[in-house]
Amino acid sequence: MITEIKYKKQICDMGKRIYEKGFVAANDGNISIRVSDNEFLITPTGVSKGFMTPEMIIKVDGQGNVLEGIPPFRPTSEMKMHLRIYQVRQDIQAVVHVHPPYATAFAIAGIPLDQAIMPESVVYLGTIPVAEYGTPSTNEIPDAVQKFVHHHQGVLLENHGALTWGKDLEHAYYLMESLEFTAKINWIAKQMNGDRELSKKHVQSLVELKTKMGINSKSPIGAETAEGIHAQKITPPLEQSLSEHDINLIVEKVTKNVLEEMKKLF
Ligand SMILES: [Zn+2]
């Protein structure tokens, strides 16, 4: 049984990681962990997440009442957003909210990450929708996020940043890293007018693989693409430039990498 102090240290280490990674500036971002059915550890407001110490971390209940905390530290103003996710998904143990530059740019542009451009994002991440803008600290953001919590692993917060949730803190963080990486690659490919999607057939194979691997997050990328919703974005189709054999080799190679990454997580 992991002790609370270990969880607090994990949060501090993760704060350092998101700060050094450039996912947050100044005092931005917040992190939380569920420690029991109705107790949560959460980062304080007004503090750089890169320089936190365990005594700064606050314990709250599901209603947001402070159970333990040393003044002057108070819970993040985005606490309601974290608590809503825990309330809706009992299986979720950690939530990460940051402002990574590429993902935040997509959030500002209102563009979801829903193109099947890389096997990793189809298998591991799934679609990342945009949750409608809400005023920070009100119930508007939790309400906007709630509709996506069951079927997705994260969202872009319109004109704001990104949010992921996972079975533990490491998982929630890797989803965020993957989300930002997907946004970055997507943006670079767009500059080359080359954001071609995988064909319906290959997306379908990846979705089947995902099911076999027991990843139960929804992958609307596959479902939508299989129905042809994104078909108009495939210009030119991947098959025109690569042979069937080449594609199979690429899918096989990337699948192997994804499986190796997944082993680290589960
Ligand atoms: Zn924020």
TrEMBL record:
Residues 9-187 form the Class II aldolase/adducin N-terminal domain. It comes from the Bacteria. GO terms for molecular function: aldehyde-lyase activity; metal ion binding. Pfam families: Aldolase_II. One of its GO terms (cellular component) is cytosol. Gene3D superfamilies: Class II aldolase/adducin N-terminal domain. GO terms for biological process: pentose catabolic process. Keywords: Lyase, Metal-binding. This is Class II aldolase/adducin family protein.
